[in-house]
Amino acid sequence: MSRDVWVVDLETTGLDRNIHLPVEVAAVNLKTGREIRFVPFITGDELGKADREAMRINMYYEQGLYKDQLDRDTSIRCYQDVFELLQGQTLAGANPRFDADMLLIGYEWLLQLEPRLPGASTRVEAPWHHRLADVCAYAAGTLNIPPDDIPGLAGVCQLLGVTNEAEHTALGDARATVECFRRLYPGKDQ
Predict the structure, then answer these.
(1) Looking at the keywords, is Hydrolase present (predicted)?
(2) Phi-psi region for residue 15, left (φ > 0), alpha (ψ -120 to 50) or beta?
């Protein structure tokens, strides 16, 4: 059975799954190149919990992401659309476990905000296939890199000669990850 591969990348207010939330979401279809990007709603209170270093790295203020922030209902619809696209598909990325977790966390957080949408469940299940595709692990195996020395996205890009045009942005990192997958598996109808 063939599944579409969707490279997903999120920029977040930090790395703690119990505190932090997504501030930018992007997905790129490996085969078609279709791109999705949105800046989900987040409250000022939640931004106040942000890790300063994470916000510096993702350049939240420098990029002016707050200007692109959607309202709550539009954000929920964007998450719904992404989850529908990912139904039964392969979620991939440079750290797909983190991005998958944060995608679920961000969506659930919005659904739990008052006022709740009539009839809407606040529990979200992962719609994607249970096996995630990690470009960093894939590169390590392909390039004979020991499992205790797996590079991050920047290292994989360097090894493969890929330029990340917008490092530490959700869409920039997703695009770079797609290009890394393509170079690691050339000629395959991805």
Answers:
(1) yes
(2) alpha
